[in-house]
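S1.2 Input.
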Amino acid sequence: MTGKVINSGATGFLVLIIPIALTAVVVATAWPVLLALLLIIIIWQIAKQWQWQRFVKQVNPTFNQLIRENSGCVTPVDLAMKANIQGNQANKFLEHKATEFSAKSREIPNQGRVYYFLTASAVQNFFEEPASLEDVEEEEETPVTSTSSAQQARETNPISSSAEAPTATITEQQKDTSSLIQAEMADRLNVHSSTVGRRKLDPDFAEWSRQRDPENISWQYSPETNLFYPLKN
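S1.3 Output.
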């Protein structure tokens, strides 16, 4: 009986010690290969980080320029066109900056994401122009029923809606004579520039701008030129 207990204990010890011994032999034999593999991984990570830091340093001036021009509102399309980089690189860069500066982002249906970086000039203008705060609150609190009611009105009056369909066109002459930058558009609508930056890619921007325009003119934003053009009625 005692012999069986000793044999079972020895068997358990061998089961435990054999894998350890094999691992030690493999490490002792192949340690140069393992060390070389570890060094390759470390060098690759360092090179990847260096390339990223170099890319960030290259794009930063363009990013800062867009922040100043658009009062903190930047889209991946704007950055990609301005910095001459690929779209996925622009998205990755803006995600990195949004994490760094705790920026907010908003997904525009069928158009992409917009990033909002809060700058000191934007905050100062908010305090200097109380109307801009009201516009922001109105933007956040306005229900979707206004859009649905407009759609119902077009459905009940198909003749008028069909007559309005061809009106949303921009002629070359209008582009040359009536284009406005974002700051001029904000002055015309009597709102803050950042408010225009938030709304310019919205599907209902034309109706929103018409309600605030002193001449009841609808406006449209062109991402290709970063300018605003009146819609010909």
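S1.4 Remarks. The first strand starts at residue 73 and ends at 74.
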